[in-house]
């Protein structure tokens, strides 16, 4: 199961990614959650506590004599996942690119470079053959164009019933399909009824894989900054994500190349 | 005057930028709307429609593809690659990422360069930034007169607003907009978390939600809707009609 969650800002990517990671862990997978957003989001939805100011991955990279970043000697993808990730709830390992602060991304450039190098090795690492990977991508198309989730075999494109969200979904799906090697699955989020699902399908021009209901409990968790799966574990959205995860597992999403 | 609108993805930056641009134009100002999101969407909230918005030429790609003669000045680019939006707003899309392996975005025309180069002699430039704080970090002092930071009453968007305010404050005047506010407790959650009062409060508004659903400009869906009126108030405050 190797999933990347993409879409417009505010569509619900982090909630879906964080909850999916938690549910996969509870289904018995070892889970690597990947956070390449320079802004906070996934850690809140995952329930893993505040983002570290100095991301552990900063320790994984160094500059060579020409001033170019490289992985430090002895750092492999296996040791990096062991040493430079943090532990989240349900035993999830969380790998983070780090968050931009007042000084921009300069303080986390080591982590940014290490992250990019490591994700391109994850897919081939036999140690992780039976792990589940769930990546929460930042809003929009930028990281997709630069191949920030090369390990992913499923891209969940999150769309809520609105024109901007759907247009973004179409754009990111197009980029993923240009890249190839992964399935594109549209997820309609915050739908109130069948008409909302039909509206999303009209706007994106293809069927959705799954739809998740609008949910006041999740909205409240978002206001409070609490992981929805902890705040409202029995809510309709969490139940919907659980069914979606089961469906993905049935589709054979646990194969790992 | 150059105004840049910043915030987390989905907080309503584009809605506010588009409605602000239309309101200013209706008050008689010459308005240039600059979309610097690599996922350009400002055309939708200006009332150009999603399909047309998706077909708009982006300056950066047009120059790169070389199908048109290079226009050396920002004004020339606005002339050549811009599009007309309702109420006389001129819309310029800076860049667009629509391909896998798009190549480096550091070379060629950059959003902050366009923002810097547009002369504002008697004109208002309203710039919709990409989600997050990337462009704000690259912005230099004087490139924008004002940064409008948009927050919703959610923990994540408040966190992004905090970062955006901290970065923008050293470079321009800043103004905080609380968007999608359902009651006083929403304002209070933003005020207490950020330690400042939002200058403008835009209420949760079914007319704006409906406009987003249908891909219309909020100002066309309901010029008198409470959310739209709040953004008109913002326009009046930023660039008073009488001035």
End-to-end gap of chain A = 10 Å
According to DSSP, the number of beta strands of chain B is: 8
Largest interface, with counts of residues having CB < 8 Å to the other chain, equals: A-B, 44 and 40 residues
Described by its quaternary structure, the protein is heterodimer
CATH superfamily of chain B: P-loop containing nucleotide triphosphate hydrolases
What does the main sheet of chain A amount to?
8 strands, mixed
Q: CATH topology of chain A, which one?
A: Rossmann fold
Which class do the helix and strand fractions of chain B yield? alpha/beta
Alpha-beta classification of chain A = alpha/beta
- Gap between N and C termini of chain B: 12 Å
CATH C-level category of chain B:
Alpha Beta
Radius of gyration of chain A using CA atoms only: 18 Å
Using the alpha-carbon principal axes, give the shape of chain A: globular
Going by CATH, what is the homologous superfamily of chain A? P-loop containing nucleotide triphosphate hydrolases
Assess the beta-strand content of chain A as a share of residues. Answer: 15-25%
Main-sheet strand order of chain A equals: 5-6-2-7-1-8-9-10
In N-to-C order, the SSE pattern of chain B is EHEHHHHEEHEHEHEHEHHH
Protein described:
The complex is a heterodimer of chains A (257) and B (243). With 257 residues, chain A is an alpha/beta fold. Chain A has one domain: 3-Layer(aba) Sandwich (Rossmann fold). Chain A is built from 10 helices and 10 strands. Chain A has an 8-stranded mixed sheet with strand order 5-6-2-7-1-8-9-10, with helices on both faces. Chain A has a two-stranded antiparallel ribbon with strand order 3-4. In chain A, helix 7 links the parallel strand 9 and strand 10. In chain A, helix 1 crosses helix 10. The longest helix of chain A is centred in the middle third of the chain and has 17 residues. Chain A starts with a strand and ends in a 7-residue tail after the last helix. The C terminus of chain A is likely disordered. Chain B has 243 residues and is α/β, with parallel strands linked by helices. Chain B has a single domain, classed as Rossmann fold (3-Layer(aba) Sandwich), CATH 3.40.50. Chain B has 12 helices and 8 strands. An 8-stranded mixed sheet of chain B has the order 3-4-2-5-1-6-7-8, sandwiched between helices. In chain B, strand 3 and strand 4 form a beta hairpin. In chain B, helix 1 crosses helix 12. The radius of gyration of chain B is 17 Å and the shape is globular. The model of chain B has no long low-confidence stretch (mean pLDDT 92). The interface between A and B is large, with 44 and 40 residues.
